[in-house]
Amino acid sequence: MKIDVLVFEIGSTTTVVNAFVGIHENKPLFLNQGQAATSVLLGDVNIGLIEAINDLKKNLNIKDIEIGETFATSSAAGGLRMTVHGLVYDMTVKAAQNAALGAGANIHLVTSGKLSLYDIKKIKNIKPNIILIAGGVDFGEKQTALNNSYEIAKLQLSIPVIYAGNCALKDDIKEIFKEFNQAEYLTVTENVYPKIDDLNVEPTRKIIQDVFESHIIHAPGMNKVREVVNKRIIPTPGAVMQAAKLLEKEITDLIVFDVGGATTDLHSVTSGSEDVNRILMSPEPFAKRTVEGDLGVYINRKNIINMIGEEQLAKDLGLTLSQLNDLLNHYEPIPKGPQIPLVERLTEEALYRALIRHCGHYRSLYGAKGRMKVAEGKDLTNVKYIIGTGGALTRLPHRRRLLNTLLKKQDPTRLMPPREAEILIDKDYIMASLGVLSLKYPQQALKLLCSSLEL
Questions:
Q1: Of 11-25, 145-159, 395-409, the least confident
Q2: How many Cβ atoms are within 10 Å of 392's Cβ, its own excluded?
Q3: How far apart are CA 154 and CA 157, in angstroms?
């Protein structure tokens, strides 16, 4: 059977293969999906990939597949590990962090100011895939970015380094990396914070994804996957963001929840409300992603269980502690039967905590004219759509109820989505795949996305 496009999605818990036809006739159709457990711990992600392809064949009731183009996304083995280093946290560091997260990175270290000896030691221990250096508005402060570039180049890690700081230092930074024989690993791009209150994160996002695709093999066996992927491969979270931005142009302000086995990601694509923008203390990116590395419903389930408390969790599920412990002792990556209510409760907690961490809030300032109300952080009050994707929110039976419950938890001090926001579910579980597909076939990807969301 001939398939126009096959997209591999290699996650931390499951590996999914999505098949599409009708791409070249602009009559795109999602054909079917194969799924298997990700096999990073076995030393080769291809084991899970082959099992997923075999599952796809089984679902299609065929023996052979003739594949046209192949794309891939991956978040296996912790995804794209990055460290970010800037000048002042609320300015250049925050801007650089937003650029990195939006591209699909997992931030393992953020520093502001000149790197300390302890910071340098932590960078060595983290073994990042990419390092992002920012610092200073254009033609502003120079010493921090120069110092940090020197210290990082001196480490001679031979990994990609992106400089997205003060444009006046571009030539100096290049000379520093040349001095330590690291020039081939350096990419210089536009400043993420060129002027006060001016974010410019999109160029850096694109560079991060390009660097990932060109240089990064971040899970056992990924080199073999790259041999069979003849088109784009990008981090899975970056692919979800790509799809979210594509969809926002069609249906307006939205947020996307992606609850996985290791993390819970929240992507928001919204400029916020005019009322909040007038009192916002500092700029926020139009498209923002936060990743909660402690909120996963499989690999990091113990974190969520501890947040809820075992006694409260048992009470919520109508179980005894003994019954709960029995469920936990037989916990599986893909839940079945009595495990489903447990995973739904963990998902509910992950959703709420991820939202609280992502959204902004109101606070009061006091000055000569008395109290003044201001806003800080990302404004979600203008969001019209709440989208659920990822394994939990596309496969759990009560996924809509989970998101409805979330919307009912309104807090007037926080810039949360309104209760009346419409809930959409990525029923085919293809949003990440369509994000990478949209890099070559945007119209086809949008049609497929609207179909999966039943728009």
A1: 11-25
A2: 27
A3: 8
